[in-house]
Each structure stands twice: as C-alpha cells, then as structure tokens.
C-alpha cells in the first residue's frame, strides 16, 4: 500500500459517518486571540514583531504618508518604483521617482531592474509580525513583491491590524493568491549563516499609517 492510499484511506474512514454531499462542521474551540490589549497595544505589538523579523518600521499620520514614502525612496536612491494599478496616487504625490506599471507581460529580468515596489496590504497580524497580500488592486500581482529588492508596504492602522492568525483568516478570501510576509526574505544553511534576498526582497519597509 502506498503512502497516498494510506492517507486517502484515513480520510475515507474519518468521513464514514458523514452523509454524501454534506460537509461535516469543524470544531474550532481554540482561542481566537490572547488577551485584550486594545487597538494601540495591538499596533505596538505588530511594530515590535515586524522589527524582530528585521523589517524596517515607520509610523506616521495619514497626511504625512506622501512625505514618508518620498523620503524612503530617496534614502534608498531609487530611480524607479513599481506601482500597482489600484494604489492611491496620493502616496507618491511628493516623489518624482519614475513610475513603472504592473503589467502582465513584464519579464522577471524587467522586474529585477526596478529599484523599489510600493503596495498596500490586505491585513497585518500583530502576534506573528506578518503582512498578508491578496492581490487586490493596491497590491498587484504576487511577483512584483518577490522580484524587486526593496518593498515598501503601507498598513492602514488600526483598521487593517488584527491580533491573531484566526482573526486574519476571517478577513481573507482563500480563493485569492495570498502571500504571507514575515520580514524580508532570508534563509540559513546548516551552519546558520543567514543570507537575505533569496526568495524575495532583501529590504522590507513597513509604514504604519494612521
């Protein structure tokens, strides 16, 4: 008997008492969140855990966002920035960096020549320091946040911040292309030598705007 047959056999046995065509409800008795910290503490926890993962965290009022974004691009020395079609144009109002559109026909080599990318997000999880993208118009295609070396992600606070993963899942559509980001891309070998920028951007800057 193969491993596949063993697994499918277990699934069939587990569903033996479920009438055909009906779904069996899944018990979800676990805690949805740990403690009651309030919005300000939840946002502070998100900032702390993002920094723990070596993301660069910036906080500002919504009205200050264009200046913050312009400053981040200038500090990076960016000459081009990839912009999703649905991004708020006001976020780049104070920057004269050349805009690059998110196009389906862009090749990996073309994306690699872009200095930076800026997106919004779907939700941010405070307990894990995770940003989730779902391909919405202000986030664009998944690959635009994986190929360029510098990603600026704007999180609207407190409305886009949740405490836990269960709370995040309630806001997300599993049919969408979900990308879960916990800090900049990094990997380590058996000797724990850390290498950044292998599977995605080497630098992740998160702006908590609100």
From TrEMBL:
Where does the signal sequence lie?
none
SUPFAM superfamilies (alphabetical): NagB/RpiA/CoA transferase-like
LUD domain sequence ranges: 100-208
Alphabetized InterPro entries for the sequence: FTHF_cligase-like_sf (IPR024185), LUD_dom (IPR003741), NagB/RpiA_transferase-like (IPR037171)
Tell me what this protein is called: Lactate utilization protein C
Q: Which organism is it from?
A: Streptomyces thermocoprophilus
Lineage, broadest ranks: Bacteria, Bacillati, Actinomycetota, Actinomycetes, Kitasatosporales
């Amino acid at each position: 008997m193969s491993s596949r047959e063993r697994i499918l056999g277990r699934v069939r046995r587990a569903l033996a008492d479920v009438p055909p065509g009906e779904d069996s409800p899944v018990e979800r008795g676990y805690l949805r969140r740990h403690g009651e910290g309030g919005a300000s503490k939840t946002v502070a926890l998100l900032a702390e855990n993002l920094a723990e993962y070596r993301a660069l965290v910036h906080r500002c009022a919504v009205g200050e966002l264009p200046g913050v974004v312009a400053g981040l691009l200038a500090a990076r020395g960016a000459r081009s920035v990839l912009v999703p079609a649905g991004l708020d144009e006001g976020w780049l109002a104070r920057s004269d960096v050349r805009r690059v559109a998110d196009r389906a026909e862009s090749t990996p080599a073309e994306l690699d020549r872009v200095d930076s990318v800026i997106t919004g997000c779907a939700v941010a999880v405070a307990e894990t320091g995770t940003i989730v993208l779902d391909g919405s118009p202000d986030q664009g295609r998944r690959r635009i946040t994986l190929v360029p070396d510098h990603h600026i992600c704007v999180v609207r606070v407190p409305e886009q911040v949740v405490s836990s993963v269960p709370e995040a899942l309630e806001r997300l559509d599993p049919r969408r292309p979900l990308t879960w980001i916990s800090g900049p891309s990094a990997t380590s070998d058996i000797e724990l030598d850390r290498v950044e920028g292998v599977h995605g951007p080497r630098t992740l800057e998160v702006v908590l705007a609100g």
